[in-house]
Specification:
Layout (H helix, E strand, L loop, with lengths): L10 H26 L3 H25 L1
Helix pairs in contact: 1-2
Keywords: Membrane, Transmembrane, Transmembrane helix
Length: 65
């Protein structure tokens, strides 16, 4: 068995991936699911909110870190 060296991963990268897995990906996935269910307006809101969270986080990372 081998181990992966995670010492080179910065805290910002870890938080980015964590945010993506917990917030952004589920919002976009729910949007796609609602799109297939025929609820276009709700699907659009899910996808746009996922994109908005992504851009807000990128803005935050640009000015804070």
């Amino acid at each position: 068995m081998t181990y992966v060296d995670t010492s080179d991963i910065s805290a910002a990268m870890f938080i980015t991936v964590l945010l993506f897995l917990i917030i952004i990906a589920p919002l976009v996935s729910l949007g796609i699911l609602k799109l297939f269910q025929g609820k276009k307006r709700q699907a659009l809101w899910y996808v746009l909110s996922g994109v908005a969270v992504y851009f807000i986080f990128q803005w935050f990372m640009w000015f804070v870190f």
